[in-house]
């Protein structure tokens, strides 16, 4: 009897500690059972939901009205039922009875009975008001959109004029290596700026959901040959070989030709940039309901730590060999946005000093 009392006392103490810990959190926490009934909430959750009374025993759907990015009501029970592992999103709003709303970060995680055991006991939701963060992000995206648009014309004019000056000077017959080199460097930097503006413009449209998707049949063999030809001079200028390895029996791929091409271009230009000797290979093979593109190189490789961050916005590796090359850290972030748009998946295989392989599976998209 004493043992049972002791166990009960310990259980109550653990529960009090858990409740105290949850209540000390700045993020809203809601624990629900298998029937989507609320078991535990903390003060931050009550503030986010704008209620001041206990929610224990109430169905989650009666107190939480989620709105998606298209201003459509989300069935929270259906969303939770679809979750197999942890789920996070920053694209929802919570709507209140007076029709006002806030932007929220929401994380939903299933709570399992224990390691190695089947079944679930419920779910834990973590919420955070990110209305101000989202507002600042939208202001930033608007600024990037305006700047990238306004700078396109002067950059294009500068690129054209410097290119013409370089051509005219070469044809003049005057030998002055300093002027030739200065014009060449100026032209290279303006081209770099032009590429950065294009990345910023694409990024801005992607962040604001302004990218449209036009699905069409893609001849993969022709597309890869086109990309290889476009970058063969860049590869040859570094003494690199650019190869093709394509399944000749590939069928047409139904996707966005524009985005698939841009994705391939970004991976190929990166491969050329970070490969000093050897080759860059562009391959493709048929997979169930789609095509897998393989871009491999014999370059400097990517460390395990960097592989986890290589698609992050503005990420630049600390490897000195990476720092030797110009870059904004936007290229692969934009690439990831485009891959998400066409539902593509990417896998990285890389070791330092042994090259990298990016495998991109692009599924067929039904019109």
Please give a structural write-up:
It is built from 10 helices and 14 strands. It has 367 residues and is of the alpha+beta class. The strands form 3 sheets. Strands 2-1-7-6-5-3-4 form a 7-stranded antiparallel beta sheet. A 5-stranded mixed beta sheet has the order 9-11-12-14-13, with helices on one face. Helix 6 (220-237) packs parallel to helix 7 (257-273). The chain is elongated and about 90 Å long. The N and C termini lie far apart (69 Å).
Structural class of the secondary elements? alpha+beta
Using the CA coordinates, give the radius of gyration. Answer: 27 Å
Assembly context of the chains: single chain
Query: What form results from the Cα inertia axes?
Result: elongated
Count the beta strands.
14
Order of helices and strands: HEEHEEHEEEHHEHEEHEEHHHEE
The count of helical stretches stands at 10
* Stretches with pLDDT under 50, minimum 5 residues: 113-117
| Sheet with most strands | 7 strands, antiparallel
- Terminal CA distance reads 69 Å
Strand content: 15-25%
Topology:
Layout: H1 2-23, E1 28-33, E2 38-41, H2 43-49, E3 66-67, E4 73-74, H3 76-81, E5 87-95, E6 101-112, E7 120-129, H4 131-172, H5 177-207, E8 216-218, H6 220-237, E9 241-246, E10 253-255, H7 257-273, E11 279-287, E12 290-297, H8 304-307, H9 320-323, H10 331-341, E13 345-350, E14 356-363
Helix pairs in contact: 4-5, 5-10, 6-7, 7-10
């Amino acid at each position: 009897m004493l043992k049972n009392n002791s166990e009960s006392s310990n259980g109550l103490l653990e529960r009090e500690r858990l409740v105290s810990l949850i209540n000390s959190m700045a993020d809203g926490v809601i624990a629900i059972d298998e029937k989507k009934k609320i078991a535990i909430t903390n003060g931050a959750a009550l503030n986010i939901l704008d209620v001041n009374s206990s929610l224990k025993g109430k169905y989650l759907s009666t107190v939480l009205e989620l709105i998606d990015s298209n201003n459509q009501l989300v069935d929270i029970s259906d969303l939770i039922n679809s979750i197999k592992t942890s789920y996070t999103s920053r694209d929802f709003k919570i709507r209140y009875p007076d029709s006002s709303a806030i932007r929220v970060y929401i994380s939903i995680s299933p709570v399992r009975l224990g390691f190695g055991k089947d079944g679930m006991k419920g779910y834990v939701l973590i919420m955070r008001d990110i209305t101000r963060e989202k507002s600042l992000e939208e202001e930033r995206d608007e600024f990037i959109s305006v700047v990238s648009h306004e700078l396109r014309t002067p950059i294009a004019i500068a690129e054209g004029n410097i290119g013409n000056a370089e051509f005219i000077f070469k044809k003049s017959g005057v030998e002055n290596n300093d002027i030739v080199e200065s014009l060449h460097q100026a032209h290279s930097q303006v081209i770099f700026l032009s590429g950065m503006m294009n990345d910023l413009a694409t990024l801005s449209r992607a962040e604001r959901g302004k990218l449209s998707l036009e699905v069409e049949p893609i001849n993969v063999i022709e597309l890869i040959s086109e990309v290889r030809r476009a970058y063969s001079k860049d590869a040859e200028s570094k003494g690199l070989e650019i190869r093709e390895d394509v399944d000749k029996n590939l069928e047409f791929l139904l996707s966005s030709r524009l985005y698939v091409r841009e994705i391939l271009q970004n991976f190929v230009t990166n491969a050329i940039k970070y490969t000093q000797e050897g080759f860059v290979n562009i391959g493709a093979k048929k997979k169930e309901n789609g095509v897998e593109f393989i871009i491999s190189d014999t370059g400097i490789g990517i460390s395990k730590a960097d592989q986890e961050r290589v698609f992050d916005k503005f990420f630049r590796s600390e490897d000195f060999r990476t720092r030797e090359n110009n870059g904004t850290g936007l290229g692969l972030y934009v690439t990831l946005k485009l891959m998400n748009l066409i539902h593509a998946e990417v896998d990285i295989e890389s070791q330092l000093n042994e090259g990298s392989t990016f495998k991109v599976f692009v599924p067929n998209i039904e019109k």
